[in-house]
Amino acid sequence: MKSLRTMLRLGVALGLLGQLYCANRPAVADEETPAGTRVYTLRYKFTPGETLRWQVEHRAQVRTTVAGTTQTAETLSRSVKAWTIDTVDDEQTKLVYHVEKVDMRQKFDGRQETTYNSDTDEAPPAGFGDVAKAVGVPLATITLNDRGKVLKCEQKFVQAAPEQEYITLPLPEKGVAVGEHWFEPADITVNLKDGRSKKIKARQRYLLKDVSAGVATIQLETELLTPVRDPEIEAQLVQSKANGIVRFDIDAGRIVSQRSDVDEHVVGFEGDGTSLHYVQRFSEEFLSDAKKTALGPQAPVKRK
Questions:
Q1: Please, are residues 52 and 286 in contact by the beta-carbon 8 Å criterion?
Q2: What is the per-residue pLDDT across 113-137, written as a single tens digit (0 to 9) for each?
Q3: pLDDT tens digit sequence for 42-60
Q4: Do the strands 188-191 and 197-200 form a parallel or antiparallel pair, or are they unpaired?
Q5: Measured distance CA(137)–CA(242) in Å, rounded
Q6: Pick from 127, 167, 261, 265: CA 20 to 30 A from residue 43's CA?
Q7: Residue 150 in 3-state DSSP?
């Protein structure tokens, strides 16, 4: 089981880098569309030379109880991630992924809050060095097709790259109607007490809930396929779940916003009398030219 400090540092990296994991697996629809039903073809669309930006926010709170003592750790980070489009050819896009700025904070019970703002701080505090080095430099050069499948990925800053995350929302190969869904494999690797690792089979389920004014609303949910009855493994899995809503502009061919929430309790993760409460929220909003990219003041994570 990861310590509170390790789990929260992972949260900081997730918030900074947004969704950066070079996945290479197809999205698979599980049903045929009835004749006469309106279907929507979802595809990414890019223009060479353009830079697309999103404001990303990640907040996490971990509360543990061991031997009657409860401790809480929390992080909050906001960043601006950017894709610079290099080439577009034969439905394939080559882009450079980077983070332009970050503002983040970390708090543990009984300790002073640690903060770092890449725009105003000359040097990062202890524990934020790798994240600070990843700001303003290319993190990966990626080639993907118009369905979001990664064809080639060259990671240039692996130290800060979070695991189990995806750079794009995977889109179905065929058109889908409102009410239809598709799946993406999402296996999760966990660590066992004896030092070995184990792969938990999982998948991401996507449901086209609605289409309004050219924007598709897609619901996402993580489904575990491997039965899990070990609380220590459950405590690791909570960090890899994603359940939320994505809004995709069909005409523009890009994600305009997304939000994912996790609120999980695990009892007995380190034996009798122990418990863990993990709360996480990940959100992302597309920044048009009219929106400011500055990172404003942040409210603290509310304790529940």
A1: yes
A2: 999 999 999 999 988 888 899 999 9
A3: 999 999 999 999 999 999 9
A4: antiparallel
A5: 28
A6: 261
A7: strand
